[in-house]
Amino acid sequence: MTATTRTTGQPRGITAQGLRKAYGGKVVLDGIDLDVMPGTVFALLGPNGAGKTTTVRILSTLIGADGGRATVAGHSLRRAPHAVRAEIGVTDQYAAVDRLLTAEENLLLMADLLHLGRAEGRRRTAELLERFGLSEVGRKRAASLCGRTRRKLHLAMTLVGRPSVVFLDEPTTGLDPRGRRVLWDLIRDLAAGGTTVFLTTQYLEEADQLADRIAVLDGGKIVAEGTAEELKRRIPGGHIRLRFADVRQLDAATDRLGLGTVTRDDEQLTLQVSSDGRIPVLRAVLDVLEGSGIQAEALTVHTPDLDDVFLSLTGHGR
């Protein structure tokens, strides 16, 4: 699925209030609110069936919502769907390219569909082939390209019309780690250039690496939203782990740091001090040790990652 169009004016973001959608008796979206700032990457994270793709389909005008309202690139979904379509690009997890055409021909076809002039279409095609590192395969049929290269071509096709908002629905599904990182760099470049990127993913590392803000969707509801660091700090279990050379140093550290705030392991000669990962907490622990002449052999800091956030908030594995 690819939808691309010509952008007008400055890039604008996405807002939604109370979006609802049900199929029969099954509620898929249960009144979600969104606020995506322009020129940022916003990740919608959630398990299978959470409603991620439904959200993208509503915001890209492919289906209607049962309730609520939304604007995309400054235009109302309800009152101005054509204006929305004139600002967006949509790429899903399937590289929807014509496998019988060359990479260049796929881009030229998209330019024709968008009613670009012949000269403009060829200029834009050459520009995107260069930008996505596809110049060397421009004359090769899409069927002969590897999955990673076809996915790059699909994203390039999405950008032919210079959309100000791009929806990427699990765009790296099925790619190897190298392929994911290639697309990550392209997504970062899009946002750096002012494009608003709305990304859905099940890859927690992907959201952590790319997103300026993340919303966790589960059971049709937004159960948490914030930066990756803000979400991680909501989950208990962060700690500073100190290892000592002998029991004497361990005893001294236990006395100074207090039994109520630490977990002691006599076999490993370690203390775990509860911490949310912020620097002031770490500095306070180091000040106590230094002020008491206590030396730790090793210090490590553990903060919950997005896996911990995901499991805690949704109760699901991926």
List the helices and strands and how they pair.
Elements: E1 2-3, E2 14-23, E3 26-36, E4 41-45, H1 52-59, E5 67-72, E6 75-76, H2 81-85, E7 88-91, H3 103-113, H4 118-131, H5 147-158, E8 165-169, H6 177-192, E9 196-201, H7 204-210, E10 213-218, E11 221-226, H8 228-233, E12 239-243, H9 247-257, E13 262-265, E14 270-274, H10 279-291, E15 298-302, H11 306-314
Parallel strand pairs: 4-9, 4-10, 7-8, 8-9
Antiparallel strand pairs: 1-7, 2-3, 2-5, 5-6, 10-11, 12-14, 12-15, 13-14
Helix pairs in contact: 3-4, 3-5, 5-6
Count of all domains: 2
Could you list the spans in which at least 5 consecutive residues all have pLDDT below 50? 1-11
Number of separate strands: 15
Name the average pLDDT: 87
Distance between the termini: 24 Å
Helix fraction by DSSP (H/I, runs of at least 4): 25-40%
